[in-house]
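Supplementary Methods, section 5.1.

A reviewer requested that the exact input to the structure prediction be made available. We therefore reproduce it here, unchanged from the version used in the analyses.
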Amino acid sequence: MIGLLYLIIAVFWGSALCGRLFSGLGGLTKISFSGKQLKISSLFLLVPAWVYLGVLPMTWFVYFASYLLRNAAHGMRIANAAAMLLFLTGGLVLYLCGKKNRLTAEKPGLRLSRGELVFLLLVLYLSVRLFWTTFRIEGNQLYVGLSVFSDFSPHLGMIRSFSSGNNFPTTYSHFAGQDIKYHFMFQFLVGNLEFLGMRLDYAFNVPSLIGFVSTFSLLYVLAARLTARKSAGFVACLLFAFRSSPSVFRYLGGLPAGTNLWKALFEHSSFVGYTTHEDWGLWNLNVYCNQRHLAFTLGVLLFVLMLFLPHLYAAAGRLRAEWRGSRGHIRFFFQRSLFCAEGWSIGGKKGVTRAVCAGLLLGALAFWNGAVTIAALLVLFVLAAVSDRRLEFLIAAVLAVLLSALQSAFFIDGSAVTAELLFGFIAENRTVFGVIDYVFRLTGFVLFVVAGVFVAANAEGRCATAAFAAPFAFSFFVSLTPDVTVNHKYIMISLMLLGIPAALGIARLWDRKKASARAAAVLLTVLLTATGVFEYAIVLNRNAAQNNLKFDVNDELTAWIRENADAQDIFLTSNYALNNVVLGGAMLFNGWQYFSWSAGYDTELRAWLVQQMYEAESPEELRQLTEENHIRYIIVDHDNRTSGNYTVREDVIERTFLAVYSQGEGDWRTTIYDVSMPVK
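The structure derived from this sequence is encoded token-by-token as follows.
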């Protein structure tokens, strides 16, 4: 109940702040960027704005207050109480102060049309089905989907490290004892909601649902305002949900004669992949199931674009009016835009507010999902080059980078990212033609549709499309992490945005009202979404109840860890992925290495140290190693006893430290030794 109250207060504060900063925001849904009339419910823009302007600052406040109170009894309780009181009071004050302005302001159109109601219900159904299929509690059993359990290992470990572990200063749950390089704030939000009494599956799924629905809502509004068509907004969301790829057609083409096509399509449970890692489910809705922080934060990028895209249209309109047949497009652009006062002006107080708000929102995302911050800056950089009011873009970018740098300096020892030129992303053949082949096999026909719309578009449309493609291009030339595969987020963000011009192409075909044109629109939609629909069925089948990993909510080992250890207690264990120890919030000295390695940690050294400690030949050697590595608990279990990387000297551990927990028999016995309790 208190966790739900936390979210309500956050959204209430966000609504009050939004009304103060952007008094006319709801009216933006009545008109496209090009000035054409629209009838879109303002709820699709206002509610997501309230969510992001409320949840992000309030959660950051709770985090830093909890950090400052980390040594106090009930520090997180005090931090949450202070936050809820402060933000509730602040929201009431803002509402009272802005009462006069609200009375005179134009009323936003909140009513949903029939089409919008159906759209919203479908998005809610999609989100609930995805999130609760992959993670839920029924009775005393926690069900974790087969397609998400590996990524959920560090996520659930981080969540539990906050809800029961007091993880301040914050360290990574799969690489305890060092700085935190991973964007963890969504996990903190979830952990805090569980700490406030919300059941774990609701604490995880409700924010995921709110963020994902907000993303769909803002994408609908952005696409409709860019294209001046509500229908294009709906189609853009359809293309976002169900990606374009030739994979389903290649899969069907490889089926033997006589195969039952219905079963082959809708009972299949393994991801079909014809590009590197596509069989991971790397490009479809499964990503938003296992990376809930991405699903939550994408809407912030869309909201910021909503604030800045009018500057592109203003510049295009001004230049078009001033052109009057002058020669030399490039020279004219430099003279009348890039090096003129109009191009670098700022829109007064509202412009400053817009720029500061956008910069703070993007900067605040750095440790929610840093890829979204980087992608947003890439898109804004291209837009700034061809828009008016570049000072607003500059202010937003400087604030975002500064805030990100401050957070990185606070959380990370050394550099947050290491940029490296790397052509080709994860294409099998990293040549120009190899990459072109890879892109087609990955994206199918959608980029051809985008290219066709680009050729027929006006200046504004072409510039917006070029800006939307910036993260896509970036991913094929630059790597910021040891594992370049994580660049797939930039590609997915670009494809989400490029779905808007693709949707415009489909909407234009439909608007011709000829049977042949509408048939072509339907056929094109099927071609662009068939693989995504197929993969949606795969996600559901792969995460069906019989395929789920099941954990006892009341497991004795999990309960012992939650009651007896906190985030300062480092566990020496096997390289766990997801198990009852991780669910207890145990801080692992060296968990499953892929997660830590891809985040930039030195996993090879840790693996060697694990071997040295488990193979220590004397109590003296073991005591020295555990002291040097700040180990509090040692776990010996079946994984250790059957490890191919070392031979555990359990006899030495037994002679050195006291066993404080034991469960099971024989090789399957799990024993926890407390390093702070030496055997006398």
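The two ends are 48 Å apart (CA to CA). These observations are discussed further in the main text.
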